[in-house]
Specification:
A: ABC transporter involved in vitamin B12 uptake, BtuC, 0% strand, B: ABC transporter involved in vitamin B12 uptake, BtuC, 15 helices
């Protein structure tokens, strides 16, 4: 009997590993493809040799390393951060629809960033710093407001949505009173596109990913106990609030940095987790898989936004258009199973 | 906020019987308040005007006088639009809460306003629709579509449309629509310029023509809405009892949702998307009147315009000589009320 269980667990683990590996390959392929296409075509092999410093070719190096690498890295990192952050939120709040872009965290970041753009005429570093501050402040506000003998996912979501409306009305006011040029800059930022920020922000995000993703993997065990519900988790000895606080913090810092780099790109955080879950199956926390799916979505959307549509659009428009039908489908199926809350 | 902490009687508790005379007197009092607020809405502003000027503007109009022109062309129509749109939003919020039996149903939270707004933008950008009458039809289409999508999607599943599902579905549909809207606006700077003012839900800048185009729809909607009290009372007892009482549930629901779509559509066409007011005021009305919708509806009808006009006046006076759009004022003050509702009420009631 035990043999069967162990064998079953082993097959599932193998499958999870294989699928995650495949996702990593796809993400890498898109990463390379992003650096190949553009006004000047660079063959795949040249891109790879240039990125990994295998060969010196000044012209290819300039195009690949200086012009395209930052964008591609930003897409990869932002997508990864959004995917991980969304997955953590969905698990912590016990609702597949609760992603940070709907429960007020992205709109907090947006409010601060738009204020920085319009009221203070800030440059890109200031905008990113404000976005990060906004994400943290609104998350803390929601957490405190939703606190009543512990956090219920239900109250957290509703209060987040309320706060989100609050932030949106302030954004509306600021944008309506701005000069047209600045309003346009703010609107562009609000849709979200990779490559808005400079290299400093990108480097910060990369450092955050390197530190926080392993941390999230370590914290994954209490996370899985939390899925059984607060009462069961407490009975099993999990320190519910502490683990939850740590994981929420990880998730918020990730979404804060991602928003700082690319603006509030919609839907990636929402859809990456469920897609990863569907592909990988039930074993494992799927954190890495969700991150990879996020990267694939962002890189793919960016390729479409820059090369397949007649006018270059911000990345967020494409993720919005991909996300819309998926979201409706998700709402419908999730609710049919009675998991929607 | 203290008002909201006191739970209203649940269905199981014995309904508080309030003397009808007292409630009627309260209603008359509120009508008086509404008139006073209307008066301030006409007189206050960057150009102060007195009662004699107002009287003269309507009895003996002098086209050369700037003050009289301001009153006839701007202040009075603006106030009337505020009253009508407020009444429309208040009643549609009340009906939505009653028919979905969901205390957090609100045209703003449920994405109905966003639907109307998005359709107007699509219409202007893609179909080249112009003029207020075009906006009104687009707003109806948008409000109707959003109502159907949000409610339909949220009501899958065992427990039907719970507050969280409705709020999430509404937030999601709003997000979808706003991302599509931005895609259109990004390519057109003039459109962006139009949109950014309209989106904050301002009463400014849209006066006489808007009033004439939207008023008939709102008035018809209001009359139908006022007649739904008995049906809402029946629905509040639960589907089975409502059926046993001889209600035709499908028809009732359809009529109510259609009324909500018309009211929200017309109000949004007139003022842009305005959130929270349709959510909070019905709760206030329910707190005053108890659970009888035949009283809640008229109270919401009078209270909401008061709140909307006060918000408009605050926005005008607070940052004079500029102005704070009414949607912004309501968003800023409505959010704390919403959060208080979520925190202090047992959300399963209603």
């Amino acid at each position: 009997m035990i043999d069967v269980v162990v064998a079953d667990r082993r097959t599932r683990r193998t499958r999870a590993g294989a699928v995650t590996g495949a996702l990593a390959l796809v993400a890498f392929a898109l990463f390379i493809l992003t650096m190949m296409v553009g006004s000047y075509y660079v063959p795949a092999w040249d891109v790879i040799t240039s990125v990994f410093h295998l060969r010196n070719d000044p012209s290819a190096d300039f195009i690949v390393r200086d012009l395209r690498l930052p964008m591609a890295t930003a897409g990869l990192a932002v997508g990864f951060a959004l995917g991980v952050s969304g997955l953590l939120f969905q698990k912590l709040l016990g609702n597949p629809l609760a992603s940070p872009d709907f429960v007020g965290i992205s709109s907090g970041a947006s409010m601060f960033a738009v204020s920085a753009i319009i009221l203070f005429g800030a440059g890109s570093t200031m905008i990113s710093a404000s976005a990060l501050a906004g994400a943290l402040i609104s998350a803390i506000l929601i957490y405190l407001l939703a606190w009543r003998d512990g956090i219920s996912g239900y109250r957290f979501i509703l209060i987040g949505i309320g706060l989100s409306e609050f932030m949106l009305s302030i954004i509306g006011y600021i944008v309506a009173h701005a000069e047209l040029y600045e309003a346009r800059q703010a609107m562009t930022w609000l849709v979200g596109t990779i490559g808005q920020a400079g290299s400093t922000e990108l480097r910060t995000l990369l450092v955050a990913l390197v530190v926080l993703v392993p941390a999230a993997l370590v914290l994954q065990r209490p996370l899985r106990v939390l899925e059984l519900g607060d009462d069961t988790a407490t009975a099993l000895g999990a320190r519910v609030e502490l683990s939850r606080l740590a994981l929420i913090a990880v998730s918020i810092v990730l979404i804060g940095f991602a928003t700082a780099v690319a603006g509030p790109i919609m839907f990636v955080a929402l859809i990456a987790g469920p897609i990863a879950h569907r592909i990988v199956g039930h074993s494992g926390g799927g954190i890495v898989a969700a991150g990879l799916v996020g990267s694939i979505i962002v890189l793919g959307a960016d390729l479409v936004a820059h090369h397949l549509v007649p006018v270059a659009l911000p990345t967020g428009v494409i993720t919005g258009i991909i996300g819309a039908p998926y979201l409706i489908w998700l709402l419908a199926t999730v609710n049919r199973e009675g998991r929607g809350g | 906020m203290t008002l909201l902490e006191t739970p209203t009687p649940s269905r199981e508790a014995a309904p508080r019987h309030r003397p009808g005379a007292g409630l009627a007197a309260g209603l008359v009092l509120l009508l008086g308040v509404l008139l006073v607020v209307c008066f301030f809405s006409i007189t206050l502003g960057s150009r102060g005007v007195g009662v004699p000027t107002i009287w003269k503007a309507f009895t003996d109009f002098d086209p050369g006088s700037a003050s009289e022109t301001v009153i006839r062309e701007m202040r009075v129509p603006r106030t009337l639009i505020g009253v009508l749109a407020g009444a429309a939003l208040g009643l549609s919020g009340t009906i939505l809460q009653g028919v979905t039996r969901n205390p957090l149903a609100d045209p703003g939270i449920m994405g109905i306003n966003a639907g109307a707004a998005a359709f107007i933008v699509f219409g202007i950008m893609i179909l080249g629709v112009q003029g207020v009458i075009g906006y009104v039809w687009l707003a109806f289409a948008g409000a109707g579509t959003a109502t159907v999508v949000v409610y339909g999607v949220a009501s899958f599943g065992r427990e039907g449309a719970t507050p969280v599902k409705l709020a999430l579905a509404g937030a999601a549909v709003t997000a979808v629509l706003s991302s599509l809207t931005s895609a259109i606006v990004m390519t057109n700077v003039d459109a962006l310029n139009e949109l950014r003012f309209w989106q904050v839900g301002s009463l400014a800048g849209r006066y006489m023509p808007v009033l004439w185009q939207t008023a008939p729809f709102i008035l018809v909607g209001l009359v139908i809405a006022m007649l739904t009290g008995r049906a809402l009372n029946g629905l509040a007892l639960g589907e089975d009892l409502a059926l046993a009482l001889g209600q035709r549930l499908r028809l009732t629901r359809f009529v109510m949702f259609a009324t909500v779509a018309v009211l929200c559509g017309a109000a949004t066409a007139a003022c842009g998307p305005i959130v929270f007011v349709g959510l909070v005021v019905p709760h206030l009305a329910r707190f005053i009147c108890g659970p009888d919708y035949r009283w809640i509806l008229p109270y919401a009808l009078v209270l909401t315009p008061i709140v909307l006009l006060v918000a408009d006046i605050v926005g005008r006076v607070a940052v004079s000589p500029g102005e704070l759009q009414v949607g912004v004022v309501l968003g800023v003050f409505g959010a704390p009320a919403f959060i208080a509702l979520v925190r202090y009420r047992n959300l399963a009631e209603l």
